[in-house]
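User: Can you model how phosphoric acid mono(formamide)ester sits in this protein?
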Amino acid sequence: MTSHLLAVHDLSKEAILALFKEAAELKAMRRRALSAQRLSGKTLGLFFEKPSTRTRVSFEAGMNQLGGQSIFLSVMDIQMRRGETVSDTAKVLSRYLDGLVIRCYEHHAVEEWARNAAIPVINGLTDLHHPCQVLADLFTIREKKRRWKGVKVAYVGDGNNVANSLIEGAAIMGMAISVACPHGYEPDAAIVEWAREHAERTGASIEVIRDPFVAVKGADVLYTDVWTSMGQEKEQARRLKVLAAYQLNGRLLAAARADAVVMHCLPAHRGQEITADVLDGPQSVVLDQAENRLHVQKAILTRLLRDR
Ligand code: CP
Ligand code: NVA
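Assistant: Here's the modeled complex, given as structure tokens:
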């Protein structure tokens, strides 16, 4: 595994499999003392410019369960708010901490943190990528479908950070992914191109289309995310209109395989990108997905922080 985790494409299939082996062991141990000393004496910093429930709490609780500590650094409280540079902050924090989780807007900002930090930097979501989410999602897909090869994922809605990371994950693990989105809301073109090239070697297939009903045909996994991501609030009215035909509802679910599972990274907006009956229905695995953030991130923390 590399010393930073900024995107899913930083990892090979072998690295992901090793990570998931560790995550499965940690999940089986739950909170038993066995896992408790792995990161004893280590401190993780979390610098977040955007709100978070799952990412913050699962990293903090995970660090705690591994015997380490965490310090939450809100953008409102540290000197960056008064103009201190990323580079100075990263260098100073590297003298105190053993790892950093960063949630920020532009992806190049997390890259700047990684360039300047002497400790591992983990991307806790940028406008372009959400790797920790998708690693937990890949782990969840294997739990539910027992495999990746031959699994078809349909992602319906906005081609955002989660869609981008999911496309990278599908390409690496050999899944078929069909993204249905309106014109102008496609996933990142460079990521799609990278994934298509990679797919040739792994047996994956990557499709970006318009019709959600075509995307979900034969799908084992239906995935959606919010229509308005953090930072896009001013575009909300237009997004609600343009994306209205991409709602994950009972009609769309009925067009997928009968045993399809429904995924959403959360937070969800019932009545917008997904209806309440589908999100809260028997095919939904969103809470398992959320739980797996904890186990997979404990494995990430162990691999990146333990032997430093
Ligand atoms: N899915 C996810 O990253 O949730 P939070 O924004 O609550 O961290
Ligand atoms: N696409 C969403 C994901 C939230 C976890 C956002 O960036 O706001």
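A couple of observations from the model: The chain has a mean pLDDT of 96. Strands lie at 43-48, 69-74, 99-103, 121-123, 152-156, 176-180, 205-209, 221-224, 261-264.
User: Helpful, thanks.
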